[in-house]
Write a structure and sequence with these properties.
globular, alpha-L-rhamnosidase, about 900 residues, single chain, alpha-L-rhamnosidase activity, 10-stranded mixed beta sheet, alpha+beta, EC 3.2.1.40
Amino acid sequence: MPGITDIRFEHHHPRDIGIGESCPRISWSYTGEDRDWVQEFYTIEVSRHGVTKSYSIRSSQCLFVPWPSAPLSSMEVSLIRVRASDDEGNLTEWSDIATVEVGLLHREDWKCQLIHADHVERPEYNHRPIVFKREFSLQQHIRRARLYITAHGIYSAKLNGKPISDHVLSPGWTDYNNRLVYQTSDITSLLEFDHNMLHVTVAPGWHCGRLGWGSGKTNIYSSDLGVIALLRVDYENGDISMLGTDRKWQWGYGPTISAELYDGEVFDASQSLSPLTQWGSVDCKPIGDRLEAPDGPPIKRTQEVHPIAILTSPSGQRIIDMGQNMVGWLRIKVIGGATGHRIQLQFAEALEDGECALRTLRNAKARDTVIMTEQGTLEWEPEFTYHGFRYVGVDGWPGVLTIDSVKGIVVHTDMKRTGSFSCSNPLLNKLHENIVWSMRGNFVGIPTDCPQRDERLGWTGDINVFADAGNFLYRIGGTLKTWLDDLKYEQQEAKGIVPLVIPNVIDGFDQDAHAIWGDVAVMLPWSLYRATGDTQMLARQYSSMKAWLDVIPRRENQLWDYISDWKLGDWLDPAAPADDCGKATTNPSFVSDAFLAHVTTLMKNISEILKEPQDAQKYSKDSEEIHSAFAHEYITPAGLVANSTQTAFALAIQFNLLPSEKQQSHAAQYLSKIIREVYRYKIGTGFAGTPYIGHALSKVGLSDIFYRMLLCRKNPSWLYPVTMGATTVWERWDSMLPDGSINSGDMTSFNHYALGSVASWMHSVILGFRIEEAGWKKIKIEPIPGGGLRWASGEYLSGFGLYRVRWLVVEGPEKQHERLWVEVQVPPNTSADVKLPNSEEWNHIGSGSYSWTVPFQSTQWPPDPMVLPFGQQEAFPVDESLPCPWDMKV
């Protein structure tokens, strides 16, 4: 029988405490390889206040099952376990017991106030981090204790000198005008029986620190650093005590002199807290924030990276090479150093002429400073900033700097990894690894564009084009649910227009509606629904979706009518000038109208799912009219489109904008022709076309063409950065030029995940995974080998359990005698349709493990040399295949 595992509530991590739902939906996964196993019944056992009740339901549902008991109360703890049976009544074992613990659901639960410093000694100290402290004693034996805490700013809390949790950069970034997220920490083991000391240090962070490019803005949400905290202690005798932020707290300054997200942190060890620290009184205010428990996981330290080398620059600076472009900070260990001695750490993503390349940071200093005191050994890492970097220039290090002196600390939202990919081509593996690193580095609380320069904002276009790839790689439903809540709020503030960034801190920059960026209101909830099976993802955002479609300026034919001439369009088309990334070769109106047709069709589907028949009828009619108008405006009877570009053809094919099969066939031929003869297999797409060019080619049977594009190493291509030593995805196709110099454009990041959207094709074509029913309840598996690949392997941990695909080209005595071995694993309570190469038949399978061996003839690889002008030829480079990493019986 299958086993039940991973019981979770809403989109929370199973270990999360202090959730914000009184009736949390329950999900569970299955383990095992039982053939064709389907859940017929489930039983949920709920233990509350010492009373246990069981609830049995006839249903195959195991994702987002309704809460069966009465609503939970604030701070209530309940124990849950689950078992299930198949249609023959065979019972699984009970799952392990899962705990659900509710946070503070109501404003009246917060028996505390907002505290902040009663004065600021000097104006330049306005944003110096502040330490708040509270001493207290306990006189009874403790059963459990919880600290509910948040801040105006980002905070670090220590109880009796120990961190209250492993979270960092809390409370994260939401639109604080809309709501402020709080955290719940189990501090039972940190409390002493008698005397206790709670210190909370608060730095500007996103609340009042500098945000945005150029000089940016400060004090966007407020100008005061403050804390809201409530400590609840449950004693063994049944008594309860509460201790909240009030006038009994004090404030002072600690060793952190300054801390800004963009500029870095300054730490003076001589000013560490001591009996000589001066403390002042706090001012109190009623809580004006809407306080909410988090929907997604916190930001944490997730990995340690060890340097690979210590370099010396031409100017004599010592430079640490981490070997990986990463997001986080350095942890240093310094021995010696006189009082007042300064160590400076300058963070950079790349080197130029052997020195740290700082121009690309623009107005972000990205520098940490440590001021020493004579105390022998100092171990330090920042708490209130983060950097995007591979290299660290070091000045003032006392003694010898070695690779053992520092560690790189990787920091990002603690998302659960769900998807994997590997194959016989090492460059493709490195590309996929780079995509994963870029996603990690750009999920620091919210989905950002980049993690290093004076920006790091929640650009809507970036996450929109990357969502399908991201949903495969990590479980991100909770994180993006929070972000979409802020999008809806900001959209209401902007009268229906979706701002370019969420939270919107550039409200004076551009207030117009933009396709793709605004289309995230429809496309991202749809992607999340498809990945998770959570219909509430659609229902919560439905009003936002409708508002977006209503506010789009239209012509009489329903297509876009731009008020402004400037459009983002196919942003970062490789042919665009370095100083004008929006000047793409594809007509931006074409791009906007293509996406309008797509999102209108999605709205028809969403309305049907949500059982909104009138809306479904409206959007169905709108979709037909827009498709007709689009075809009239942009498509010839022969299947040509208004622009003969990769992006134009890709969107027309992928979004079903070509009215007839004949036109689609001709469009496919034209697209293939320009890729070969005009682009010579190099990429020619920006934000709009990159996610779809591979899918469009595969849709019309031209996967071999895209394999050649994917494996191209010339600039621009996906593998060009890999051959240049990239360890993350670049913002531009040519952020670094072939001679090692850095692109002259003002926007040149070496860590942007958007162009990594190609991972979606790698997952759905090389591996063959395609969602058929939302949540991966049913999928299609149709791997398409090519590009000289000898094997590929991948897994996806769905809400139901683990899917796996592996395939291997088995060599015969001659090429025409090759065979293809395919292995598939499908989790219990799901099914799949499998299609093997060179077959038109679909094999329907239930859960379990299956394998097939079929005749196969791989395409010619390497392909024939490409004929260049004047009769020259260019051979296609080929890497030696990696050996297959698993054993099999064929």
